[in-house]
Please model this.
Amino acid sequence: MSGLSGFPEFLPADRNVELIVLDHLREVFELHGFASIETRAAEPMDTLLRKGEIDKEVYVLRRLQAGEGDSDSGLALHFDLTVPFARYVLENAGKLDFPFRRYQIQKVWRGERPQNGRYREFTQADIDIVAKDELAFHFDVEIAQVMAEALSGLPVPALTLQVSNRKILEGFYLGLGIAEPTTVMPIVDKLDKVPADKIAALLQSDAGLTAEQAKQCLALAEIRSSDGSFVDAVRALGVEHPLLDEGLDELLQVVTGASGADGVEVVADLRIARGLDYYTGTVFETRMEGHEQLGSICSGGRYDQLASDGKNTYPGVGISLGVSRLLVPLVAGGLTADRSVPSAVLVALTDEESRPASLAVAAALRARGIPTEIAASPQKFGKQIRYAERRGIPYVWFPANGDDGDRVRDIRTGDQVDADPATWNPPAEDLKPRIKEQVT
Amino acid sequence: MSGLSGFPEFLPADRNVELIVLDHLREVFELHGFASIETRAAEPMDTLLRKGEIDKEVYVLRRLQAGEGDSDSGLALHFDLTVPFARYVLENAGKLDFPFRRYQIQKVWRGERPQNGRYREFTQADIDIVAKDELAFHFDVEIAQVMAEALSGLPVPALTLQVSNRKILEGFYLGLGIAEPTTVMPIVDKLDKVPADKIAALLQSDAGLTAEQAKQCLALAEIRSSDGSFVDAVRALGVEHPLLDEGLDELLQVVTGASGADGVEVVADLRIARGLDYYTGTVFETRMEGHEQLGSICSGGRYDQLASDGKNTYPGVGISLGVSRLLVPLVAGGLTADRSVPSAVLVALTDEESRPASLAVAAALRARGIPTEIAASPQKFGKQIRYAERRGIPYVWFPANGDDGDRVRDIRTGDQVDADPATWNPPAEDLKPRIKEQVT
Model:
């Protein structure tokens, strides 16, 4: 981990963990037809700060060579991948095919004070589906299912994908006779930090609810289930509203459709409120077992107005995985890979004169996809083996020499066999770096 | 291509070209045992601007939320990957195994004026080998050979990897009796832009050479060969010096060792001077046929003092490929991929009720590694086929329906066959996006 606070950097073996994770994410996203895009790191300030916001923690760019009179470049580093994606969609709307599925794995930056210990640079992996004018609901189910599958293959502790739906809360509040549901949501959203009786009091004093209405709102927020039983639990509260029905049906489809991925429990959790003024239906959060203090490591939802150019509206549904947020603490806790290099084989060097022979062995192995490096110098073989050991390279190859033919040694077991560089293969699991220690 | 000058962005099909290129580079680098690292985007200003430089075109970062009295954060975006790598090596020297081979594929930024049309954000792919105290010469050969192999598989016009060696020039000038070789190099370096007779005059007026010395310097700069014949050509000039001998021997090894990769001609070219005050031996430049105006798209060399902490010195040899510099003009000229999505198959949808059947087909295909998406809505099959066509998806799958079993159609040929989602495979070349149009 690096010396500059908030800018995490990995050592090579730990970077291999990150590569394993990123490769897995990409594989799942592409299997589901999500196209890769990257957007530029910088956006005009007015794209980043909409509606007069000026409280965002962003890094503004200034040209060092700017003249005296020049102001800032008007550019700042993006702080998420959603805002740049919305801009990309509008800018290229005529050239994209909708519905457009995209994944985007990039760094983002936040202009935090160095003292506060928060990340100032981190990697996110987002998937979104965006359409023109209208986006069918089944895409909400797809987004949840794809991310659950992606999360399922990660070398991390058990995950819980919590799903809710704004329509349930809004419909329930309306069904209770509350005229302004939006005054209720921010108060209920504090349930994580504030005791329930305090919330009940606030709902009455600040949102003008009756004691009974407040009790019902809290009862709704208590409901969670990893199957469809949450529907009956909500019904049992006796509140009715068409929007509530719609929300329950949607949430049931998402929970049912996304369940079944190993290591990822999908639950309907009606306490999840996640910026409900922003999302318009499905919302997601994700907790990692034993790391609850990280908050949600993977969040998102449906926004019926991801982007709009005044003429057309582009609704979207998406979810964003905080790759650094997930990995940096796990790596600090010991998660690493079994080697610091990609090499599966180190070809030993008998003497400087026989370097061409060692090069030929390496070329033969590489031609069949086996990552191979050659010992830096013709030290004693014991030293060359330790060279491999330090890097976690599992095999050392001894080129033919005099009466001895080519031999390869698994340095973990000491087993040594005769081998032909044109045909020998390591077991598939030794071909690439693997996770060494699974942290739980 | 995007609307913000200097910040190129790709449409999805063009991004697939970039992914094909980046995947290929990574594969070659890893086959040769180069470890991946990434460094943070920002470095302290004093790391970026060494020795009192203040003329670098860098982007300085300022926190939008900085208070009145706060100055800039002291950070700026890196403008290459060499300076951050040197800092990373020093910072982690105790935890790295030397010699350390690393590749690094990342964006870099230059704080250029928007008007000048230069890139302000672009991707570079660097490989370097760095050692502690001493780095054997054979690593120069390895770096050239690995990059030649990496360049060889790219979907680009013919490339020429031009190699020279500072020791040849310095030894030759010393052998000519020139006391200060460093005064000669910057003048000879102008040969690309200034006529030879003018250079000869400058060498006499500004560097104090005799007419004969100037003539010899120009004769040396004319020498180029893609085999070992440059050695004889230099010898024929009749100049002798131990440093010249050493340089000729080194250059011969690099040219011989790196030759043989398809599409990449390796030539000894004694006009290449490339910041010779910086490099200490081997130097590289690369030209692309028909795109000479781009200048060198892949450059580097040997620097005996990549990094130093006062106690230890870390010599290195490396080469840096300008991925954006190479691809952006080619994509603008028509280089693209055969599809805008990763999907090899679109599963058609008979009606909304049979969506689960289409999902099951897709799951069966994905389970065997076939990227698959499902039609967004149950339009007429003709429309669903055009949906696939627009995205370049080669196959449309029609799930079993009534008496009809599962069928799959190659929409490029119209050929349709009965198929089982548990066993059918597309030809390997259809599994992933491919380069559609090779620009020459």
